[in-house]
Design brief:
187 residues; Alpha-Beta Plaits; 2 domains
Length: 187
């Protein structure tokens, strides 16, 4: 049975609090097995009979909206997808490893078109750098996200599509814990 990772938007942010035991139960009620959660930010690992990730995204999103009363956009990746995302280096080490710098990964439903990518470039500054690869947007932030002198750029509007963001450290830990069966866990 295929294994998937659901990255959920709107779980435990913006006043939408969902306990992880409830979230696991909702996935089980939706017909999935071997359901686990990873930290309390909407990361759900599960087995499904279907191999159609897009159909699973719709099914999960619809079921969670019906059950929770608000929209929960769902992004599905396989363990192999996540391993690839976690090991990809979108920025030179000299930039990414500077003290005070954090790398984030935004998961998207589809690759952004060239027009959206051009709009995104307008938000690149000495503080913020962006890189798109497939259905992921990598964001290098050279300052704390909470610094009022440098507000978070509205890059979501530039892309014109929903997304959910995770710190790259979380993505790496998730990829290591749920490495594809045919591969050794990531270091």
């Amino acid at each position: 049975m295929p294994r998937f990772i659901a990255l959920l938007r709107a779980i435990n942010v913006g006043g939408h609090t969902v306990k992880m035991d409830r979230l696991r139960k909702l996935f089980e009620d939706c017909g999935f097995s071997d359901v686990e959660t990873f930290i309390a930010s909407g990361n759900v690992i599960f087995d499904a009979e279907s191999e159609n990730a897009q159909a699973l995204e719709i099914r999960i999103g619809d079921y969670l909206e019906e059950s929770l009363g608000y929209e929960v956009t769902t992004f599905i990746r396989t363990p192999s997808d996540l391993a690839d995302i976690a090991t990809y280096e979108p920025f030179p080490d000299s930039q990414a490893e500077t003290e005070g710098t954090t790398l984030y990964v935004s998961f998207l439903p589809t690759p952004p078109d060239s027009e959206a990518q051009l709009k995104l470039e307008a938000y690149c500054t000495e503080v913020d750098a962006f890189h798109v690869r497939g259905r992921e947007l990598y964001w290098l932030r050279r300052m704390k996200m909470s610094d009022p002198a440098y507000p978070v750029p509205p890059f979501g509007k530039a892309l014109g599509m929903p997304s959910t963001m995770r710190n790259a450290t979380t993505v790496r830990k998730l990829a290591a814990k749920y490495a594809p069966n045919d591969e050794a866990p990531l270091e």
